[in-house]
Design a protein that fits this description.
The complex is a heterotrimer of chains A (258), B (308) and C (282). Chain A has 258 residues and is an alpha/beta fold. Chain A has helices at residues 44-52, 74-77, 97-103, 111-114, 127-136, 152-164, 182-197, 209-215, 240-247, 251-257, and strands at 4-15, 18-29, 33-37, 59-64, 67-68, 82-84, 170-174, 201-205, 218-223, 226-232. Chain B has one domain: Orthogonal Bundle (ABC transporter involved in vitamin B12 uptake, BtuC). Chain B is globular.
Chain lengths: 258, 308, 282
């Protein structure tokens, strides 16, 4: 437990005077499957945005592999091994499935490879690899189509694959299971387990507790911008603060929590 | 002597600016409320002037009537501008709202409005050719001389009239129920719909106002400068866009200030640096503002930044 | 080749090149409504270099492109600070300022225009047009093209994927300016006479419309758009006024039925599928 891939130290952030994150600190262990849960508005997505560099924290540090990310623009963080998906699917609507996946590789290529035509030098431009990856995930059927017409579950999957293409050390997933049916959720879980087995650390936000329970070992719980629990998922239900925070919530989440 | 000449130029500039005010307000309403850069506005302006001229010259087509009284002709011209504006609403804004849920996406209305600009402009060119036409009204030469300065009374009345109309509009937007609905739509069209505002019935009001403002402005131009031409819209349109940006997109009072500033800088620039320098001055000023203070003098930050 | 045909082809070539200049920026999601300004810069540069220094035609064309590109590069930084409608207006302002400066500079002939001594044949225009079309397709077939389209679709996500959106946008704007300058140089050399009034707002509007109607999703768009709007009126042999009236009607109708332009990716995909009736990697 001494070599965290990601360490958050006292992260604070406010928008327009409202404190969204209040001194949040926790570690994500290398190779772990770590969940970040909490009621809506707890600051989970904001925390993701701080980690990926969309927002700068007012206080505190984000350490990736022991190195402070301060001053590193969001664009360059993917090269440091950080990749993410989004709460609302944000695939490029006018790019085909294959092109979306290839966009995920962007950070791995030098300028000289970027000016080679993709169709004629599929190997050195990464196109061949992208096709292979699509095949291995069983979504090659769609590769030439633009994404907007595809089923929701497929699009979610493509987004995860796109995030993987940068060969990240740490993958941030913002509500990957939201909106998926049971079968799709199960497929996603298997996919993420496979990803994890490749040695990639997962940090994910989700509301679907059965999904989180069956995937993650570690969990951090946030409420009103503060971290109220950080530890193994098995001890979660014993923690009084967590129970208290979740008691005030709506029935549905409560039930899935139980 | 120089001082007095400059003062005369300032007066002329303010008068010229009064023409730009209404058109600039039309632009700013479309942007501010609908997030729509409406390029048909210059054509609506021109349409009102040319229809007015045509009626006062030939009367209703096919010899159905003799030449019409100039005031009535201009009135019909304004009505035409309003109808044309509603046509634009029907085929650009409303249609895309229905089809895509968001009429501001992909710059579709902007491109469509460029199409309507061509349609209106070339209908007039086909019908009447490209000549500048004289427009005679009852006010041929009513100048008011005080202390060596010449102030044209129609121009002065026009300036006051423009400001009154715009001021009235501004009050309307603030106080009335329609005004509140319009501002709600400007804030967030979806939320406005949820709050029970009938967007499909309110939006045409914006287009009616746009047509009305363009028509009024064209009428004022025709009365003051005694001429109309198929290209009159281009000149006023570009200046009004500049005025809108200077005042800040979406700000009615900003458009007034912007109109006067553009009018002033145009006449002063012509006075000091020659006829064709106005283009550089006005657009240079505008470019600097766009880059360094994109909100203009009175604008809001959020307007017009959405992506295409 | 008859005189009429060669004239039409030359105009077609110039329009296609001009359309690609605007397309390159539009492909990154930015509308440039100041095309005429950059074209004017190239035209006057070409005319001056040819008249005053007597440079050979090919060098003058290269310099038109370089000057167009250099000026675009310099103004790209302030202009790209602006977004959306502001960007449209800023580029529009630039074209007006360029025209204003030419009108006020006696050295450039002011409002009376300028006669260009050198002269090129239609063939030269067509060869350059082919080169530019190939260049356009080439750029869009690379990872750079992919990144440009990604910036067009979603700047924020492209940024998180490691795409340097600033470099992409400035680069596209610069290349666009260079190509516009080149088209201006060709115009000056082919017609032998240039005047500031020609490079007006309407020209900027038309070329932007060629591109948007053609479609910005693929490199086919500007080729199809410019060809469509240059050749159809010629084929119908209608007067100029009617031509632009019909142009306007087509735009309104197009926006209703095919707002993404004539050529879209999905349409291309369907065509390829039918032609080869099989799966195809885009």
């Amino acid at each position: 437990m001494s070599d965290p891939i990601l360490r958050l130290e006292d992260i604070s952030k406010s928008f327009g005077g409202v404190r969204v994150l209040e001194k949040v600190s926790f570690d994500v262990e290398r190779g772990s499957r770590h969940a970040l849960i909490g009621p809506n508005g707890a600051g989970k997505t904001t925390l993701f945005n701080v980690i990926s560099g969309i927002h700068d924290p007012e206080q505190g540090k984000v350490l990736l592999e022991g190195k402070d990310l301060k001053g590193i623009p969001s664009r360059k963080r993917i090269k440091k091994g950080l990749s993410r998906s989004f709460q609302n699917i944000r695939l490029m609507p006018h790019l085909s499935v294959l092109e979306n996946v290839m966009l995920g590789q962007h950070s791995r290529f030098q300028f000289l490879d970027m000016v080679k035509p993709l169709n004629f030098s599929a190997k050195s431009t990464g196109k061949a690899e992208a096709i292979e990856t699509l095949n291995s995930f069983g979504i090659d059927l769609y590769e030439g189509q633009t994404v907007s017409s595809l089923p929701y579950g497929i699009r979610k999957k493509i987004e995860v694959v796109r995030a993987l293409m940068s060969e990240p050390q740490l993958l941030l997933l913002d509500e990957p299971a939201a909106g998926l049916n049971t079968a799709e959720t199960n497929t996603l879980r298997d996919l993420l387990k496979e990803v994890s087995n490749r040695g990639i650390t997962l940090l994910l936000v989700d509301h679907d507790m059965p999904f989180v329970n069956s995937l993650c070992e570690q969990v951090s719980v946030m409420n009103f911008g503060q971290l109220i629990y950080d530890g193994p998922i098995s001890d979660l239900k014993k923690d009084e603060k967590v129970l208290e925070a979740y008691l005030g919530m709506d029935e549905k989440t409560e039930r899935s929590n139980a | 002597m120089l001082f007095e000449q400059v003062l005369q130029q300032i007066i002329n500039g303010l008068m010229l600016g009064s023409i730009y005010i209404s058109v600039a307000v039309a632009f700013t309403l479309a942007i501010g409320i609908l997030n729509f850069l409406n390029f048909t506005i210059p054509a609506l302006y021109m349409l009102a002037g040319m229809v007015g001229w045509s009626l006062s010259q030939y009367g209703v087509p096919f010899g159905l009537s003799g030449p019409v009284n100039w005031a009535f002709a201009l009135f019909i011209g304004i009505i035409c501008a309003i109808l044309a504006s509603l046509l634009v609403e029907r085929f650009t804004y409303r249609y895309f709202k229905m089809k895509h849920g968001d009429a501001t996406e992909h710059a579709i209305p902007l491109v469509s409005s460029l199409g309507f600009l061509l349609i209106f402009e070339y209908i007039i060119l086909i019908a009447h050719g490209s000549d500048t036409r004289g427009f005679s009204t009852a006010f041929s030469n009513l100048d008011w001389r005080i202390g060596g300065f010449i102030i044209s009374i129609p121009q002065l009345l026009s300036l006051v009239f423009s400001i009154l109309i715009v001021a009235g509009l501004s009050v309307l937007l603030k106080r009335s129920k329609v005004g509140r609905a319009l501002r709600a739509i400007a804030e967030n069209p979806d939320a406005a719909t949820i709050m029970g505002i009938d967007v499909d019935r309110i939006v045409p009001i914006v287009f009616i106002l746009i047509g009305f403002l363009c028509g009024i402005s064209a009428a004022i131009f025709a009365i003051n400068y005694h001429e109309v031409s198929p290209y009159m819209g281009d000149h006023v349109g570009t200046k009004a866009i500049a005025a809108m940006v200077i005042g800040g997109l979406g700000s009615v009072w900003g458009a007034i200030a912007g109109g006067l500033i553009v009018g002033l800088s145009e006449t002063l620039s012509i006075y000091f640096f020659g006829a064709s320098s106005a283009q550089i001055t006005v657009w240079g000023l505008l470019l600097l503002l766009l880059v360094f203070r994109p909100t203009g003098l009175f604008g809001h930050n959020a307007i017009g930044k959405g992506k295409f | 080749m008859s005189g009429y045909l060669s004239g039409v082809l030359a105009i077609l070539g110039i329009n296609i090149i001009f359309a690609y200049s605007i397309y390159i920026t539009a492909a990154t999601g930015q509308l440039n409504l100041g095309g005429a300004g950059f074209q004017a810069i190239g035209a006057y540069a070409c005319a001056l270099l040819s008249n005053e220094l007597g440079l050979p035609i090919y060098l003058t064309l290269v310099f038109s492109a370089i000057l167009g590109g250099a000026i675009s590069f310099l103004i790209a930084f302030p202009v790209l600070r602006t977004k959306g409608v502001y960007m449209v207006l800023a580029t529009f302002a630039i074209a007006e300022i360029v025209a204003g400066i030419i009108l006020n500079t006696d050295y450039l002939g002011g409002p009376t225009g300028m006669i260009v001594n050198a002269y090129i044949e239609t063939e030269v225009v067509l060869v350059v047009a082919v080169i530019i079309v190939i260049l356009g397709f080439y750029i869009m077939s690379t990872r750079i093209g992919l990144a440009m389209r990604a910036v067009h679709d979603d700047e924020a996500v492209a940024d998180l994927m490691g795409v340097d959106k600033r470099a992409i946008q400035v680069g596209a704007f610069t290349i666009g300016g260079a190509i516009a300058g080149l088209s201006g140089g060709l115009y000056a050399l082919y017609f032998g006479f240039i005047e500031a009034q020609y490079f007006n707002a309407n020209i900027s509007i038309f070329v932007l419309l060629y591109v948007l109607i053609g479609g910005t999703q693929t490199a086919w768009g500007p080729l199809v758009g410019a060809s469509f709007f240059t050749l159809i009126p010629e084929a119908l042999r209608i007067g100029d006024d009617w031509r632009f009236f019909i142009f306007g009607v087509i735009i309104v109708i197009m926006m209703i039925f095919r707002p993404e332009g004539i050529v879209t990716r999905d349409a291309l995909e369907r065509v390829w599928r039918q032609l080869f009736s099989g799966k195809r990697n885009v």
